[in-house]
Every structure is written in structure tokens, then in C-alpha cells.
Design goal:
The chain is of the alpha+beta class and 202 residues long. Helices cover 47% and strands 16% of the residues. Strand 5 and strand 6 form a beta hairpin. The longest helix is centred in the middle third of the chain and has 17 residues. The model has no long low-confidence stretch (mean pLDDT 93).
Amino acid sequence: MSTVVEVYADITCPFTHVGLQRFVEGRAAVGRPDLTLRVRPWPLELVNGKPLGADFVAEEIEEIRPQVAEHLFLGFDTASFPSSTLAAHALAEAAYDLGLDVGESVSLELRKLLFEEGADVSDAVELAALAARHNIVTAKSTNDVIDAYQTGITRGVKGSPHFFVGSADFFCPGLDIQRDSDGHLHVTADPETFDRFFAAIE
């Protein structure tokens, strides 16, 4: 039986990619294969009123990689950055209708495609191929994504990724994110918070 860990997350957020990978590595390290992610939509294009820009995300990645994630973002390509994430979020929601394991797999693969393989996850052909690999035939609509996002607002989601574990919640556990007076991003590992996050999972 799975223990579900909920997280509201955007697909184009590089901090989310790091956070989800750390979760996967963390559950393996502590021997908890029963832990399963329920990744819920938190599209930053709805939060901000427009999609994230490719150059902005690239600048964040340039700061993140040498500081905490040298093994990630190896195939990121600004030329194939998605114009929207709503269809990709809708596909992930449809995947969860087939089971928690399918939903988690699709959620992780969407980010792998974007950040490690340089794919455009707003491209209909790319999404159709991903759906076929996971036998997803029933689509969700962008209205389902918007509804999930609005539920996140009522739950007090602060940003991406925001984890919910029982009565506790953790925004971006494992990373300390700061900007200096010149606007430069500084990201450091925060293992203490990450350990508290994992300890809160029953």
C-alpha cells in the first residue's frame, strides 16, 4: 500500500525538478519504496499571468547547477522551451486517473523531457507520444488544471514545489534560496529541513 505525498508543482520550475529528484533519491536512501508522489498542478503561468521565459529559467539553471545539482539539467535547451504547460499538466492529471504510479511516472518524465532531453513539452506530438507510452487514452482539460490550481490557492500553496505531509507542509524542502542585493541567485542545500520533511512522512 502506498503512502501518498502531495506536492503542488510547476513543470518549468527548475527548483521543482531538483526537489522531485531529491525526493526520489531520498526515498531510495531510506528504503521507502511505498512513498508515492501525487504531483498536483501549480502552473506558474497562472500565478504570474504569463509563462516563465526561457532565458529567465536558463539563468536560474546556471546558478542552480554548480551550487546543488551538477548532475541535472544536462540537456536543457532554451530553443525548445514550452510556450505553455497547461496541456502537459492536463496529461499528468489524466495519468493519475490510471493510478498513482502512472501519474508519478508521467509527472517525472515530463520534467526529464524538458530539463534533461531538451524536448518541448507543449508540443502536441511530444505529449501524444508520452501518452501512448503510458497507455493514456482519456484526456483531461485545462479546466481540470485550473480547478486543481484554485484548490491549491485555498490550501495556501506558497510556490513550486510545495509539499503536504499529513498536517505539515514544506515549501521547497532541501534548498535554501536567496537573492542578494544585486539580484544574483544563491542556492544552497538545506539537509536539516529535508530531513524534517522526510521525518514527517508516516
